[in-house]
Each structure stands twice: as C-alpha cells, then as structure tokens.
Amino acid sequence: MKAREIARKLAKTDAYMRRRRERKKIEMLFAISVSGPLAARR
User: Fold this and answer.
1) Into how many domains does the chain fold?
2) Separation CA 40–CA 6 (nearest Å)
3) In the predicted model, what is the mean pLDDT of the chain?
C-alpha cells in the first residue's frame, strides 16, 4: 500500500476530521487576533 493510499484512508476517519476542525478554529482565531482592530495599535 502506498503512502498516498494510507493518507486518504486516514483522512476519512472521524478522529482526523474532528482534529482538522479544531485546527481550523485555532487558525481562524489566530488570524483574527493578528489582523484584528487591536493589531494596528501594537
């Protein structure tokens, strides 16, 4: 089995999808904090 096939199977698991959503939330919060209204005052 090739690495790409393994990655595709892992990407379909519930744990992967849950973790992906959590990462996305953190990235969005970070982006907002960096580019938000308080960022211009720094």
Assistant:
1) 1
2) 44
3) 88
